[in-house]
Amino acid sequence: MNTQQLQCFLYVADRLSFTKAADDLYLSVPTVTHHIKSLEEELNTKLFFRTRQIVRLTEAGTIFYEDAKEIFNKIMFTQQRLQDIAKQELKFLTIGCSSNYELEELTDAVTAIHQEFPRLRCPFTITDPFTLRHLFESGQLHLILSSYTASKDIKDCSFQKIKTFQNYALVPPEHKLWEKAEITLEELKGHCIITLHPRLIPFYTDQKLQKYLLFHVQDHADLICENEAVSMLMAKCGYGVCVLPDILIPSDLKDLKVLPIRDVQKLDYGITFRHNNMEQQIQYFLDYFK
């Protein structure tokens, strides 16, 4: 089935005339007839009832008409989009991160790169660190934002630091720790800790905090959540203390107090990119954060 077959079918169906369809398509009647016949053979059904005096759609032709119209229009729309992209010479810089809140780090940079490269588009992918890594390694992402820990062993890549980040304890107003300005891991003992899934913890914590969280969950009724949004919701609802890195905490967070955890290390956060793909727009993006 091809576009010319579909077009001939639609023209004949709309005009109920092979002659008028041929005239409007600037084709010969035998050519239109050939396309209709080949389409019918491919579908193994008659689409038109035809005599010398009349042309009308069969029941199968009537059913096929709407589908054929939708298929043909989608093909035409897709072809037009691709042609427009080719004419505009659009380029794409695909970027991945693991949280909506990380997008706050990128607003100014993306604004600047859009002004410098008006024909550049920056599609974003937001997913977990494991999937980000897979997409990056398979070439589907140009850049990923992550901790150094998450990307340090990816081959043929470099890491450009943007900032350091640290982990915080998020507590609701009624919690015993609310009056604190900062806390230690020792002060978390005995409290229900709300944390990310263990498979995600290594990407966001130093080794000391990793061990603490993994051992703490074995001895207490801690809550394990699939993402940071659920973790913060559980803390707001009074289930316990949420432990998260600041890169996953919104700047306008309400109803929770953010307490630094004093005795854990800060970690590097930045951009991972390939050595062999230093196009002008990628270099510009990296330079923006220097």
Automatic annotation (TrEMBL):
It holds the Pfam family HTH_1. The keyword Transcription applies. It comes from the Bacteria. Keywords: DNA-binding, Transcription, Transcription regulation. Residues 1-58 form the HTH lysR-type domain. Coiled coil: none annotated. The keyword Transcription regulation applies. Belongs to the LysR transcriptional regulatory family. PANTHER family: HTH-TYPE TRANSCRIPTIONAL REGULATOR, HTH-TYPE TRANSCRIPTIONAL REGULATOR GLTR. This is LysR family transcriptional regulator.
